[in-house]
Design brief:
It comes from Archangium gephyra. The protein has about 1350 residues and is mostly beta strands. It is about 5% helix and about 40% strand.
Amino acid sequence: MKNGLFKKWLTAALCVLALGSTAALAEPDSFGLGTGRNGSPTISTAGNTLNSYAPVTAPLAPGDVSIPMGACVGNTACFAAGDLVMVLQTTGVVPVPASGTTGPLDITNDVVGRWEFARVASVSGSALTLTAPLIYSYAANVSQVIRVPEYVNLTVTGTGRITAFPWNGSAGGVIAFLATGTVSNAGQINANAAGFRGGLFVDDETTAVGCTGLDEAAALGAQKGEGIANVRYGATHTGRGSVANGAGGGVCHKSGGGGGGNYGAGGMGGRSDGSIDGARIVGGMGGAALIYSMLNHLTLGGGGGAGQGSDASGAPGGRGGGIIFVRANQLTGTGTIQASGGGGGSSNSDGGSGGGAGGSIYLRFASTAACSAVTANGGVGGTVNTGQVGPGGGGGGGRVLFQAATGGTCNLVLIGAAPGNQQDPTAPDGTPYGATAGANGVPVTLTTGFVVPPVPTVTTPANNSFTSNRRPFIEGTAQPNTTVVIYIDGVEVGRATSNSAGTYIFALPADLSEASHTVQAATELNAVQSARSPANTFTVDLTPPDTTIVSGPPSLTNSTSATFDFGSEAGATFECSLDGAAFTACADPETFTGLTAEKAYTLRVRAKDAAGNVDPTPASYTWTVDRTPPNTVIVSGPPTRTNATSATFDFAVEVPEAGVTYECNLDGAGFTACADPETFTGLTAEKAYTLEVRAKDTAGNVDPTPASYTWTVDRTAPDTTIVSRPPARTNATSATFDFSSEAGATFECSLDGAAFTSCADPETFTGLTAEKAYTLEVRARDVAGNVDPTPASYTWTVDLTVPDTTIVSGPPALTNSPSATFDFSSEAGATFMCRLDTALTFSPCSDPETFTALGDGAHRLEVSAVDAAGNMDPTPAVYTWTVDLTPPDTTIVSGPPSLTNVTSATFDFSSEAGATFECSLDGAAFTACADPETFTGLTEKAYTLQVRARDAAGNVDPTPASYTWTVDFSAPETTLVSNPPNPSNSPDATFDFSSEAGATFECSLDGAPFTPCTGPVSFTGLGDGSHTFQVRAVDAAGNVDPTPASYTWTVDAAVPETLIVSGPPSRTNATSATFDFMSPEPGVTFECSLDGAAFSACADPETFTGLDERTHTLLVRARDASGNVDPSPAIYSWTVDLTPPAAPVVVSPAPNATVDTLTPVISGTAEPLSTVTVIIDGVEVGTARTDASGNWSYTPTTPLLLGEHQVLARATDEAGNAGPTTSEPRIFNVAQDTSAPETSIDSGPTGTTSERTATFEFSSNEPGVTYECSLDGVPFTPCTSPVTFTGLTDGEHTFRVRARDAAGNVDASPAGRSWTVDPNAGGDVAFLGDGIGCSATGGDASLLLLGLGTFLSLSRRRRRRS
């Protein structure tokens, strides 16, 4: 290797080390086989959709926990809390590949096709909330969320079918479920044709020719099939260029659509119309092959392109196969799992449509797997039922990921489908006419059973550990030789591989922040992760700790020891230095003893954290030891005898000393700390008290000779008595009292709540002029100062005021009663005096007092109160009233009509001023009523109202006024007497109607407002369509029929159209013919005319029998329910042919000829457009179709033996008549051909290239040969020219090809060519000069790793060659 090249390879290797941490990381999938939460169902019927689907309506980013979604389709269960869902970006590749881009499309690192599982925490409206954040981003409106059932077991019986809801452009196309137990499948799990949609056929009315455009406008270009480039599918996306895995459509004139792609590329559509457009190779291009791993991507099969045409006989392209995703413990049964593409639509004379590509099937089982077959085949291209019009290309094969414990017994079939055919075998390229097959898919098989790998451990950093290394090594144990995924703070930072002993070590690629972190690990095997290990929390700490002395001795103490508490960060240790000594390790707390010297001491302490960092600024504390005690003096205290229950003392020391505190001992209770001054409370016991007090200085030295003081507490209060006092009620303005108590006591008085003051015994109070109650309290105070707590009390009243009188109640001011009763009130104990009307004097009266025999007219009462002292109210209370005994007269002023349909009635009354009214309806008791008064809720009958007035005095009219009326609210009934027929072809309509006598009518046509009308009523000029007439009666009382009579009829003057849906073949030997008819108008009948006969009624379908041998013509016309007849009957002509064809003539091989091929061409003539059956040596070996001139040819599909052979032939015409076999056999001989053909490579890569795809074209000197190819020394396998190899690795490759002739002779010297794939022609690594430097533009070190591997491989190869 040259030095310069070696340097570049070495640089690439170093770049791998520098950039490896940027490699894309696989999705963590730790859901295993699911939870079994959906039980063990049995599927025994067809059409069961297990999954629910919804489009994702807004972009999703890593870390999102909410998924906004659109309408749910598929299974109606939709989504609920606890569900497992798959998030899948189904389409939306960016950037969109250019139309017509050839070669495979690598989406390994693309967002399209990416999926992940998530668990639903809750559902709110149109949003899902997840239990954990998403790993990846997903684009809006091209991604979907899929509910994934989790079964224990799933049984599909022989009649059971699980199907996918077909992809609709935003959701669907997927079958996905998990099972912790067994999936037993005797039926089908079927996602056939559930994938990307085929292009739709659009008829081209221009009949243009010569089109070639990759994006030819519609309808000169047919619609492309759908693929992962969603923006390039639809009515405006036409032309032969494929876009990603979506196939191209045909172009004018009548070329075929391409097949969709998936693992295998789709086949190309057939040529253009050979009769008018030169049979050009312009068929739709096949959809591209997609490259990716099914461990983390899934795609639908690409849709086939539509064929182009102008005869309205085309069909849409085949849909691609869907996705099937199954993970379970075991698979049993003889059922099938299918995700094949749909076939391209065939046509009579337009270009055929391409087949859809096979879908994607993901099957992973922990145990064994058995089934009949797993198929993801391409759909067959559409066939054209005429000659030299382009058939559809075949769909590419799909992809399968299959894993089982023993490899499984399922047959994995991923065939690229054959193209369609046209009917002219002599056309260019034969019946495929340039249309090609789709490429096969290749399954990926994992030979060990599916497992969720065990959870690894993290041993370093240990939980709750500290480190000063920003990049600590991550170490632990895991299953041997597995990938270990490292998570720091919940985010993946890289991967390591455990060794054969099951240990791993991982160096962090970047510095960690100085903070607390968590580390977890998970093992990954085939893209499935274990659960994460428990989180170890560790702290990266580069900061020295700070030290605090939390507690220590007082700054002045008499203790000869000192204890300290220190503080710092968690896990720190400490080092101490006392009085300048060297730092040594010390505990927390730490005690220093033997401090006997009376002096100042200084301690310094510094922390050392768990990472070994030492505080550079130690904490310091200084204190003094003092051991000399103080002497105590009591400066002041309470009197020696007192009634106070508290005592306050002042203390001092003999020699003044700052900071002295005191301890007190009251009555021998023990010394405790006390203040200066100190107050003792709660001294409630009457006795002598003794206090001792001793001083304590700031060093803690205590006076050994406490000071002492004794005093007595006396707390017994005296009792007080009022000996004499004034009367309880008096008009005296002074009062004298006598008191008594224990000897020597004095007194304190409080009058009316005033403060207690000293008073004499006796004591007189004067000036009591206020008329009120007075209260005196008096208490004794003994010699010791104790005061009677319950003073003696006395209350008396001084009253000098005359009473006031009130009339509380009496008769109304106007009354018809000749008696009157009054209630009076005044002060308590008062009596009353009354005077009525013109009496001259007051006389005693009671309370209450009643006056009787009062006459009509006004009356007056005066009343005065007399209090208990004899004082009489000088201002009597006065009351006047009038007695009225004459009744009023009553009149009804207005009321309802005598006949009404109103359920309420309002009346107006009149009488004398001030009168009120009482009413009686239908003999009920009279009750108060208003003026006016309304009665509601009246039923249908006659009513009588009586009303009487009551005047203000209460007199009632003895002759009430009366009024009678009738309520009638029964609505009339309306009846239609006559109406037009239904349906009717007349634009005019007349109606007649009736109801009860005296009723009038209101009419409405077609929902218009009701208006008055009379019967009969007519309407003219009505348009086609449905009409509704309504009529309602209104009776004399104004009641309206609430249910109008209604009649709906249809005016139909439009004639129907007639179509013949099916009939006999255009040429047949059947003497009967059955036809199906239809009309766009429902409810029609049909009339037929055969061969010019008169029209007569016929059925649908209708069969005609006894037909003779000739051309027949059928006319059929529809007659609708209104009697309208189609004026342009549908026409169909066909020929009954009962004459068998003549025996064919065998032209080649010539009689007794010798041929040197085992598959000689046998040809001849027969009736044009008939089918010839070829019989060799008495065995029917195949058929051939004659052309319009009667020529036919046939090549045996099974090689003939050497020697003599006999050929016979028999023709069957288009009508199905079988003719006789040729009378004389054609005899020929097959001789041995021992000459091997020669092989040449016509084109392909040479030298060095950066392309990972290689296409070779090759040929032979002998016609009719087949080819076998070998790449890089693998065994030869059949191939066709051109052949394409994709996904080539870096380095040297060798291609060899050999021809095999019809006799089985093989070229012994295959043609060969070698070339080298070198990524430096256009890769991601840029070498920076001749030095060691690099940059990666792709964001992924995988290419660099690939380069390094290739470098090592080439180095070994070059050494071997040298």
